[in-house]
Design goal:
about 160 residues; 1 helix; mainly beta; 4-stranded antiparallel sheet; 5-stranded mixed barrel; 2 domains
């Protein structure tokens, strides 16, 4: 990772013209800089584990200062929208299981199993033979619960 290390212009006259740069963990490059470079900012490459850089003067005064590094973390959120599947079903009257109409497009938030019966929100039961469609639905599957027969499948 690249960071810019700089010191302000209020440096004492006794501080050296050369300075060492050291990372508290990991590595830093370069490991040294001049006073003029630090006044305008030195770009350094450091490991992602570095949380502080110590700058030490090599002049008459050997003062050191440690500058903490604060990382900005980012979070990425991915949202997936599941579009309902459209199926062709035969609709049956719920109480009698008598055929009402055929090849009716319905939507479902669940995958349907061919050969099973499902409850529809419109008060019918539906038999799904295994055909999907892109036609806009006129009814929808009420729940993922299915049955092998129309008889006994609860009506809405």
């Amino acid at each position: 990772m690249n960071i810019t290390v700089s010191l302000n212009s209020g440096l004492g006259a006794s501080l050296g013209t050369n300075f060492t740069l050291a990372a508290n963990t990991g590595t830093i490059s370069p490991t040294g800089a001049t006073k003029s470079q630090l006044l305008i900012g030195v770009t350094c490459t450091v490991d992602d584990t570095v949380t502080g850089i110590t700058i030490c003067s090599l002049g008459v005064c050997t003062n050191c200062i440690t500058i903490p590094i604060t990382y900005v973390t980012t979070t990425t959120t991915t949202t997936t929208t599941v579009e309902p599947e459209y199926y062709l079903v035969d609709r049956y009257i719920c109480e009698s299981c008598g055929l009402f109409d055929t090849a009716v497009p319905v939507s479902s938030a669940w995958s349907l199993t061919a050969g099973n019966w499902y409850r529809l929100t419109g008060g019918f039961t539906a038999y799904y033979a295994g055909t999907r469609t892109s036609t806009s639905p006129v009814d929808s599957i009420f729940s993922p619960t299915s049955s092998g027969t129309c008889v006994g499948l609860p009506c809405l």
